[in-house]
Amino acid sequence: MGWLRVFALVRRFYFNYNYVDSNLPYIHSLFFRRVQFSIRLVIAFLVSGFLAYGTPLKNQVSQLVFLIPLASVLVIQDTVGLTVAAAFQMLTTLVPVSIFLFIVQKIGLGYHDYVAAEIILLIVSFFIGFVGSQAQSRKIPLVMCAVFFATIVNQPIIPSTLIFQIFEVFAIGICVSVLITLIIFPAFATMDIENRVNYILLNLGEMHRLIVQSFLHQDQIDAQVLLTQVSTIEQMVFEAMSSLQTKLVFARFEPSRLLQRIFNLKRKNIIDLTLSEQENLVTSLFLHVRSMQSMVKQCHFNEYHTDLTRDIRESLLNLCSCQSIIINNITKHTLITKGEFMHYVSDLYQAHQKLSKTYRDTGFHRLEYAVISGTTIKSEDYLGHSFFLFQIHTIAKLLISVTATDKKKVVEKKRKKSLKERLIPKWSRILVALKTTIIMGVGSIFVMVPSLVTTFENGQWIFIALCMTQGDTVGGAFTTMRMRLFGTLLGAMWSYITYLAVGDQIYPTFGMLVPWILFFGYIRSLPNWTYTALVAIFTPILINLGRIAGPIPVPEGDFILLRIEENVIGIGLAIVLTLIIFPIFALDLLKENIQNTLEAFRDSVNSIRSIYNKLILDKNPTGIYFDIEKNKEVESFFAAQRNNFYQFITTQRTGIQHIAVEPTFLWINNFSSNHYTTLIEQELDICQILHTIDAAELSTLSSQLNGRFDMWSSYFKLSQTRYHRLFNDGIFYNKELFEIELLKQDSYLAELRQTVHRLENEHQDGVDQLLKRFIDLLIQGGTPSNFFPYKKNDQNDLIIIAISTMCFSTIKLVKSAIDLGTTIHNIFELETTHRYIPY
C-alpha cells in the first residue's frame, strides 16, 4: 500500500495534477512547478543543442545551426497547450512566408538589389503584421525575414534553398520544444485548470465558512476580524481566477476531455464537468460568496439580527458542514462510491430544506412578535437578511446541481461569423500591419545600405531589436524595451564570463550555459520578469554560439559590445517609431474597455427590465403583482456576459500597469492609477449584484441607469487621445463639451440618490402595510395560516425570498452606480481640467 501511495504521488507530481490532494503540499508548491519548467527548458536546450552540433545538421546549415537551440528556448512555454499554440501560430506564418521568399529568390528578385529587396521585405512585413493578431506571434517570423534579407543582400554566395534552411532550423527547434513539453513534466493547460478550480473551490468553501461565522457573531468587531481573513483569501482566489479564461483558450490545443477521463477516472461517478462548466461554476460561486461578504460588512448587529441568528444558527452550521463535505469530496481523490457520495448530497439537500423551514418559521414568529409588542420591522434589516439567505440557498443548489451526474449536457452554440464579416478586414489590423511595415523598412536600412552596413558591422542587431520590441500598445512596447535592455545586459555579462572560462569550445560552452538557463528559467515564471528572463536566456546563446558559427569568429569582447551598442540604438529607434507611427496607447484601450464594460452593464439593465415586464401581471397604485408561474420560463440574461466582464476587468488591470510607462502628460492633465483601481473594484461590485438579480430570476429606474451608463461611457470616449479619436471616429473632441458634461453629473447623481431613498421608503411602507393587514386579520378572527399560505410551501417561500433579494439588490445596484459615477467623475475631472495641479 505504501508503494502505491508513493507511485500515485510521483505520478501526480510528474504530470502536475491535483495539487490540493496531497499530504506533502510543499512538493506541489509554486516553487517546484517553476523548477519543473526550468528543467524542461534546460532539457530542450540540451536536446536541440545535440541535434545542432552532434549530428550532420552542423555541416548542412553551419552558420545557422545556433538558431535550433535558440528557437527551442523561445517557443517552450508554461503549459503544453500554450507551447502548441505558439508553435502553431509561428508555423502558420512561417510556411507561406518561406514559400513566397523561395519563389522570390528563385526568380532573382532582391538578390544584391537593395530596392527590390526592400519592396519585397515591405510586402512580407505587411502580411506578417496583418496575420499576426498579437505582437508575440509576429516576432519570430519578422526575425526570420530580417535574417533572410540581411543575407541575400550582403553575402556573395547564397544557397538556392536559403529560406528553407532558415525555416528548417526554426522548425526543428519548434518541434523539439513541443516534444520536450509533452515528455518532461508535461504541464497540460487542462490539468492546470482542474488544479485551479479545485484550489478555488476549497478556498471559496473556507471563505463561506468564515463569512457564516462572522454573520452568526453577536459583536460587529469580532465579525470584522473574520472578514479581514476573508479579504485575504479573496485576493488569492481572484489571482487564481484571473488567468482561467486565458487557460481555456489554450486548452483547445489539447485533448481536454480525454485527459479528464484519464486523470479523473475515480471521480467520474461523482462529478463530470467540462472545463467551461467548471469555470462557470467557480465564477458563480465566487460572486455569490462575495455578495455574502458585502452584506455582512453592511449588516446591523441589532436585536433583529441577534434573534434571527439565534434561531437559525444550528440549521445554518449544519448546512455549512454538509457543504464542506461535498466540496472536499469533489476536489480530492478520495475512495468513495457513488452511493456514499449521493448520500452526502442528500444530506446537503435536507439541510437546505431544514434551513428554509427554520428561516420561514423565524420570520413568521418575528411578525407575530412585532404585532404583539407594537414594534415595527425595519425594511433594511429584512431585506439584508433575505439577501444573505438567498446567497446561501443559491450556493447549496449550485453544488447539488453540478453533482447530478446523470443530467443532460447542454451544448453551447456559438455564433459563427458571416462570410462578409470574415472578408472585410478590420481597420485596426491594417494600421498594425502598416506600422509593422514602416518599422521593418526603417530597420532594414542598417543591413541593406552599404555605408550603414559598414558603420554598424552589418547592423543586424539593430534590425532584430526593432523586430523583437514591438508591442500591442505603446505602454506594452515600452515595457518590452525596458525588459529587453536589462535582459541583454545580464545575458552579455554571462556571455563574457563563459568565454573567459571555456573559450570557443562547444560542449564546455553548453556546460556553462546550463546553470544560467536553469536559474533564469525559474525567474521566467515570475510575472514581472518573463521577458527579461527570456532575453537573458537567449542572449548568451546568440553571442557565444552565434559568434562561433560565423565564418570568421569575432573577438568575444567586440561581439558583446557590438550587441549592446546596436541593441541600445535599436531600442532608441523603436521608442521614436512607436510614438510617431500609428501609436496605439494603452490609455485609449483602457478607456475603450471601460466603455464596453459600461455598455454591457446598460444591456444587462435593459434585460432586467424586459424580465420584470414579462413577470408583471398587474401594476396599480396599491401594489405590483407577479405571475409566479412564469418564473420558470425566464432565461438567464447575465450568463453570457459574465465571462466578458471578467475579461474586461483582467484587461483593465494589465492596462493600468502599461499606462504607467506611457507619456500620458501629452494627452491628459493627471492620470490616477488609484482611481482606476477603485473603478475596477466598483465594476466588480456591480457585476456581482447583476449576477444575484439574474440568479433570482424574477420603469423609471431602468431609464435612469441606462442614461447614466451611456453618459459615463461617453466620458471615456471624450477623453481618449486626439490620435485615437481621429482614426476611429474621424473627429476631435470639443473641450467645451467637457464643462457641459461635468455640470450634468451632479444633478444626475442627485437623482440616483433620490431613487435610493424612494426604493427604501416604498419597501418600508410595504412592510408597514403588511403588519397592518395582519393586525386587521387577527381582529376579524382570522388565522395566521390563512394569511400566510406560503408558510407551508417551500417553492413559494423561496420565490418570496428571491423577490426580496431583487429589491435589496436593486437598491445596492443604484448605490454602486452612484459610487461608480462618482469615481468616473473624479477621473474625468482630473484628466480634463486644471483644477488639480500636482506639486
From TrEMBL:
Domain Integral membrane bound transporter: 450-576
Keyword set, alphabetical order: Cell membrane, Membrane, Transmembrane, Transmembrane helix
GO terms for cellular component: plasma membrane
Protein's cellular compartments: Cell membrane
Transmembrane feature ranges: 37-54, 60-76, 83-103, 115-133, 140-158, 164-189, 430-453, 459-478, 485-501, 507-523, 530-549, 569-590
Membrane topology: Multi-pass membrane protein
Pfam family, one: FUSC_2
Protein name per UniProt: Integral membrane bound transporter domain-containing protein
